[in-house]
Specification:
The structure holds 3 protein chains of 3 kinds. By secondary structure, chain A is α/β, with parallel strands linked by helices. Helices cover 40% and strands 14% of the residues of chain A. Chain A is built from 13 helices and 15 strands. Chain A has helices at 3-11, 32-43, 55-74, 88-102, 118-129, 147-153, 176-185, 259-295, 323-329, 350-354, 359-363, 376-396, 398-404, and strands spanning 20-21, 82-85, 109-113, 133-137, 158-162, 189-193, 212-216, 227-231, 300-302, 313-318, 333-334, 336-337, 339-340, 347-348, 365-369. In chain A, helix 3 runs parallel beside helix 8 (259-295). The longest helix of chain A has 37 residues, at 259-295. By secondary structure, chain B is of the alpha/beta class. Chain B is 41% helix and 13% strand. Chain B has 13 helices and 12 strands. Chain B has helices at residues 16-27, 38-57, 71-84, 99-107, 128-134, 157-166, 186-189, 238-253, 255-273, 301-310, 330-334, 339-342, 356-380, and strands at residues 4-5, 65-68, 90-94, 114-118, 141-143, 170-174, 193-197, 208-212, 279-280, 291-295, 313-314, 345-349. In chain B, helix 4 (99-107) links the parallel strand 3 (90-94) and strand 4. By secondary structure, chain C is of the alpha+beta class. Classes of the chains: A alpha/beta, B alpha/beta, C alpha+beta. Chain C: This is Iron-sulfur cluster assembly scaffold protein IscU. Chain C: Residues 2-126 form the NIF system FeS cluster assembly NifU N-terminal domain. Chain C: A scaffold on which IscS assembles Fe-S clusters. It is likely that Fe-S cluster coordination is flexible as the role of this complex is to build and then hand off Fe-S clusters. Chain C: One of its GO terms (molecular function) is iron ion binding.
Chain lengths: 417, 381, 131
């Protein structure tokens, strides 16, 4: 480590004020090309796309339909299968409640996974309050779902299953082809949350046995506040509208469409389709570099399967270092930590807990998520920063000292307070 | 395209200052407000600043503002969210509500609720006696729009709120068409919940809010990450929310000018209409100053709107959301207007940037088109 | 979360980090907290024959406030008698560091660590006298 970098590590640096962004899984910056495409639609081409009577409305409608085509193309769907929403949260709510309500006569049991996004888990919980029953499957320690356990959870009254394609915290990719086929064999409607997958993995809805799929723009270099839901036409899947009004989106979703945001999502998905393969190669190289650098540190654990995983995500636990002080120490990078300390309660990530990680390891985890604008320099800086700060915190850590002295921490009787 | 835009009740062009407030959140690296790092915290600060601006503009507390993606969502949220925490009861709404109130209200019938429309008089003013009578049956929710999108009629909300409160009902008002056109003050209106929207006041599409008295027990419409105090999950649309905040601030600052200017334009316009033998709806009622809704017997509103569009004037035949259908306006039917006349309805809604010259030009074009269409129909007949 | 300047100062420049010889009869050790709770504090004090704390060292696994709380008490302890040390209240620590309500438990933990270290040295002294 060079002297100058060492100084930065110990004293902080200019990056403390302008940290390096490594939180692409939380949200992505809007691609400048996307922004350029959006701006005319909030300045010149304003108009309510549902206003059929004047050209302001027509221009908006044409732009909306072009964008719908781009979204459909990325996932090889028919544009008529794409319904706009205000984001993946709404897509997940609409898909799960919409299908469960429409097909409730067929059965009232839902299967999902404990590592799903809150927008899925909490929606299923809401349906439980309304009289549905749900099974929440724990994944394997790798984060992947055991297909046999999924099969075993199926009941005659199972009506819907919801499994995400790419996990937001650990980046693992579920085998939705296999899960979808099981659903097909059992007449179960299959919903997939693909908010974290677009532009990262190939999605071919013509081949995939998936009935409903949720998308988000702001995880794929598009704007916040816009998403989409894929609703299969052949065989036709029906959903009960969750929002009533003017009857936009063929009655499935009412509310004035934000034209510039839709345009932005279309452009973001176009870029994703055209550049995904090349971008993935570059990001995998950066990820490998980061992984190799961090694995030189003792007692680090990668959370989630490394093979069945998008290269954009690296979730690592640093043993014997407490999570919140770790976050304080790494101000030079903007990352997400496993301890979601949004409130008074310091509660470790439910996803890592579901993998069977201890509270301590869950707390001391960091999700590095790499994206379109990450550079080699960013990765180099991150590695040296992490090494320096982990050393410093471990020097402070009584647990590290005990570990080094050969004490088995699991045998210690802690004076819990 | 050099059309004159006279359809401000459908949507409005973004104000340049609003756009400028949004650009940093559209172009630069913006974080997720939930994130704890500086990108997230600055996005959170921006959302909270906008919340304060919105609250200030409509006489509410910041803690009462729940951001949603559209007015439709806020209205659905108010009806379904409040109903979900009440035992099966009654919901009352005016016969001139937007479908995003009436449809979810009707849908409550499926879960055992009584759902009843309260009529309006020939001017579109709510029938208070009918409301009072309906309130004799136990009622949980009353929803009446502050200003109607088609006629522009303003209801006496404080009276409606008082009657509803006395009967133990929660009172909601859709104030989407009121904000920026007349003073809108949540606390003074004395309602429990109020919907406002950004794109009607020169803000961006994609942001709206339900202003909610915290004593109202409400169920979220969207479940998930727990944003908006757990009442509206989903990553905040930071740019749109920031724009909404700025639009609110400007709307209130410009209110007096907007009022006198659009009132002047409408007076001039309706004065010019007098020679055309048209019916101006709600002409003698208290209306938002920018709206004129009129009809001409024998000419389809839709036809006239299309003809005017070719001549470079953008107006509406009814509410944008139902422009797809050729059904006559439900608002006019509720006012007892004959369906034939209602089919002829055209709505003109002025904005701050329209000029008297545009009104004069529009009147000339309107007269010519009416004449032309009348000749066409008489030849056809 | 906004930390006070004092917390940040102790976090960035922790005082008296390290360990003393735990087998030294003049050294008392207090270890409180549990990894599962997110805080473990180890405080060691060296007490001379007149009952004055000559040295204090700490190691802490925990958040910035926990690190700052323990760093601060090592400064305070030096030169005090063990009775004076025993009298230190968590509220004094919280006040000095301007801890927010959600972090008060860090000061409680620091007080517990002092009490545990004092108890340990007293137990050692008692054992010595008994011997």
């Amino acid at each position: 480590m060079s002297a100058s970098i060492e100084m930065q590590v110990l004293k902080g640096s200019e990056h403390d004020l302008h940290p390096i962004y490594l939180d692409y899984s939380a949200t992505t910056p809007v691609d400048p090309r996307v922004a350029a495409k959006m701006i005319p639609y909030i300045t010149e081409h304003f108009g309510n796309p549902a206003s059929r009577s004047h050209p302001y409305g027509w221009t908006a409608e044409k732009a909306v339909e072009n964008a719908r085509e781009e979204v459909a193309k990325l996932v090889n769907a028919d544009p008529r299968e794409i319904v706009w929403t205000s984001g993946a949260t709404e897509s997940n709510n609409l898909a799960i409640k919409g299908a469960a309500n429409f097909y409730s006569a067929k059965g009232k049991h839902i299967i999902t996974v404990t590592t799903e996004h809150k927008a899925v888990i909490d929606t299923v919980r809401e349906l439980e309050r309304q009289g549905f029953e749900a099974t929440y499957l724990d994944p394997e320690p790798s984060g992947l779902l055991d297909l046999d356990k999924f099969k075993a959870a199926i009941r005659p009254d199972t009506v819907l299953a919801s499994v995400m394609l790419v996990n937001n915290e650990i980046g693992v990719i579920q085998d939705i082809t296999a899960i979808g086929n099981i659903c097909r064999e059992n007449g179960i409607i299959f919903h997939v949350d693909a908010a974290q997958a677009t532009g990262k993995v190939h999605i071919d809805l013509e081949k995939l046995p998936v009935d409903l799929m949720s998308f988000s723009a702001h995880k794929t270099y598009g704007p916040k506040g816009i998403g989409a839901l894929y609703v299969r036409r052949k065989p036709r899947i029906r959903i009960e509208a969750q929002m009533h009004g003017g009857g936009h989106e063929r009655g499935m979703r009412s509310g004035t469409l934000a034209t510039h945001q839709i345009v932005g999502m279309g452009e973001a998905f176009r870029i994703a389709r055209e550049e995904m393969d090349e971008e993935n190669i570059r990001i995998r190289r950066l990820r490998d570099k980061l992984l190799n650098g961090l694995q030189n540190i003792e007692e680090v654990y990668v959370n989630g399967d490394l093979e069945q995983r998008i290269p954009h995500n690296l979730n690592i636990s640093f043993n014997y270092v407490e999570g919140e002080s770790l976050i304080m120490a790494v101000k030079g990078i903007a990352v997400s930590s496993g301890s979601a300390c949004t409130s008074a309660s310091l509660e470790p990530s439910y996803v890592l807990r579901a993998l069977g990680r201890s509270d301590e390891l869950a707390h001391s985890s960091i999700r590095f998520s790499i994206g379109r604008f990450t550079t080699d320099e960013d990765v180099d800086y991150t590695i040296s920063l992490m090494k320096g700060k982990i050393d410093k915190l471990r020097e402070l850590s009584p647990l590290w000292e005990m570990f080094k002295d050969g004490v088995d921490l699991s045998k210690v009787e802690w004076a819990a307070h | 395209m050099s059309s004159i835009y006279l359809d401000h009740n459908a949507t409005t062009a973004l104000d340049q200052r609003v756009l400028e407030s949004m650009l940093p959140w559209m172009l630069n690296q913006s974080g997720n407000p939930t994130s704890r790092h500086i990108f997230g915290r600055s996005a959170r600060d921006a959302v909270e600043h906008a919340r304060a601006q919105v609250a200030e503009a409509c006489g509410a507390y910041a803690s009462q503002v729940i951001f949603t993606a559209s007015g439709t969502e806020a209205n659905n949220f108010a009806v379904k969210g409040i109903a979900a925490n009440q035992v099966g009861s009654q919901i009352l709404y005016s016969a001139i509500e937007h479908p995003c109130i009436s449809r979810p209200a009707k849908a409550l019938q499926q879960v055992g609720w009584l759902s009843s429309e309260i009529g309006v008089d020939a001017n579109g003013i709510l029938n208070i006696a009918q409301l009072q009578q309906a309130l004799e049956t136990t009622t949980s929710i009353v929803s009446v729009m502050l200003a109607n999108n088609e006629t522009g009629v303003i209801q006496n909300m404080t009276e409606i709120a008082e009657i509803s409160r006395k009967a133990g009902a929660f009172i909601h008002t859709d104030a989407v068409q009121g904000l920026g056109k007349i003073p809108v003050h949540f606390t003074d209106l004395n309602v429990h919940a109020m919907t406002i929207s950004s794109h009607k006041i020169h803000g961006p599409q994609g942001a709206a809010a339900l202003i909610l008295d915290k004593r109202v027990d409400i169920q979220p419409l969207l479940h998930g990450g727990g944003q908006e105090r757990g009442l509206r999950s989903g990553t905040e649309n930071v740019a749109a929310i920031v724009g909404f905040g700025m639009a609110c601030e400007l709307a209130v600052a410009n209110l007096a000018d907007f009022n006198s200017h659009t009132q002047m334009l409408r007076d001039a316009f309706e004065h010019g209409l007098k020679s055309l033998n048209v019916t101006v709806f709600s002409g003698s009622a208290r209306r938002i100053p920018n709206t004129s809704f009129f009809a001409l017997e024998g000419i389809e509103g839709e036809t006239l709107v299309t003809a005017l569009d070719r001549k470079g004037f953008a107006v509406a035949s009814g509410s944008a959301c139902s422009s797809d259908s050729t059904e006559p306006s439900h608002v006019l039917l509720a006012m007892g207007v004959a369906p034939d006349l209602a089919r002829g309805a055209v709505r003109v809604s002025f904005g701050a940037h329209n000029t008297l010259l545009q009104v004069t030009d529009f009147l000339t074009t309107l007269k010519n088109e009416i004449l032309r269409l009348k000749q066409l129909t008489s030849i056809a007949a | 979360m906004a930390y006070s300047d004092k917390v940040l100062d102790h976090y960035e420049n922790p005082r008296n980090v390290g360990s003393l010889d735990k087998n030294d009869p003049q050294v008392g050790t207090g270890m409180v907290g549990a990894p599962a709770c997110g805080d473990v504090m180890k405080l060691m004090i060296k007490v001379n024959d007149s009952g004055i704390i000559e040295d204090a060292k700490f190691k802490t696994y925990g958040c910035g406030s926990a690190i700052a709380s323990s760093s601060l008490v090592t400064e305070w302890l030096k030169g005090r008698t063990i009775e004076e040390a025993y009298a230190i209240k968590n509220s004094e620590i919280a006040e000095e560091l301007a801890l927010p309500p959600v972090k008060i438990h860090c000061s409680v933990l620091a007080e517990d660590a002092i009490k545990a270290a004092v108890a340990d040295i007293k137990a050692k002294q008692a054992a010595k006298e008994a011997a």
